[in-house]
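Researcher: Batch entry, complex prediction.
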Amino acid sequence: MIELRDAFGRIATDLRISLTDRCSLRCTYCMPAEGLQWLTKTQRLADDEIVRLAKVFVDAGVRSIRLTGGEPLTHPTLVDIVAQLAAFEPRPELSLTTNGIGLAGRAAALVEAGLDRVNVSVDTLDPEKFTALTRRNRLPDVLAGVAAAAAAGLAPVKVNAVLVRDSNLDEAPALLAWALEHGYQMRFIEHMPLDADHTWTREEMVTAEEILRVLASQYDLRPVGHIDHAPAEEFEVFSRDGERLGTTGVIASVTRPFCRECDRLRLTADGQLRTCLFAQTETDLRAPLRDGATDAELTELIATAVAGKQAGHGISSIGFVQPTRTMSAIGG
Ligand code: SAM
Ligand code: SF4
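Model: Structure tokens for the complex:
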């Protein structure tokens, strides 16, 4: 059996596919107000190219595929892509990371097509803050999307929030309360230096330690550790009088990196393979694909890229350089 093993013994089994670099929001920590230089239709992989590459990855040992972006729900044939991935043998686990806009109308169709899980980004429940943070007045659409996903059978819905000082940090306990009440799994994410505006600074970044301190003002959190290869540190959440309320997670990619256990690969919307979010190099799969490469040749290119996967992201190393591609153009 083929496996994608790197020089540090890690085996890549999880693939994130960015379906598009475009987005319906302009989150201040991710994109500039005017958007980015979008990929053209020719630059973007077509559906059949996405599906062909995904199959090559699955045949090489990938067992879970997450569709992301940009905003994957802006991709007109998302449901059809999910159906094609779900028909693979072996069938990979299929998930979606989305800002939730448009999910209300498509959640049921996505489940029918074979979607297993969803992560929806909800940074705040305050409409004014939401509009300031995302530069769009769309909170009701997002919340309708989360509710529809749960109703369609994608429970437990995971909800992601990037916490930003002077914006939504103080709302963390309220976000957790809302998630616990609805049975969603809340995960708080440290902001990483992948923003388009290059405004990230270590001093301004909200650390996991700080997030846990803010949550501890209202809850008793007991660490569970990492589950499987997931980057989130899980916590059981208890009320002050000892009632177990559920769980939450903190993704501390900057201050508590989990690179040693990383099993991820990323395929960008223009067909570039990235073995790390912070890689300075990519492997072009689009050109060989369009030049008629066989599955065996594509597998060889992927295996070579994985073999050279860097040990860690190196954000804390002297000489760290932010990659040119931003989070939305890589696929978060
Ligand atoms: N548009 C979809 C969404 O927002 O969920 C999918 C793509 S988005 C890039 C995936 C996740 O990355 C979101 O949860 C978002 O909050 C997070 N994100 C974006 N920029 C980030 C950054 N610089 N550091 C950490 N997380 C970031
Ligand atoms: Fe769009 Fe997601 Fe980036 Fe927000 S975080 S701008 S929703 S890609």
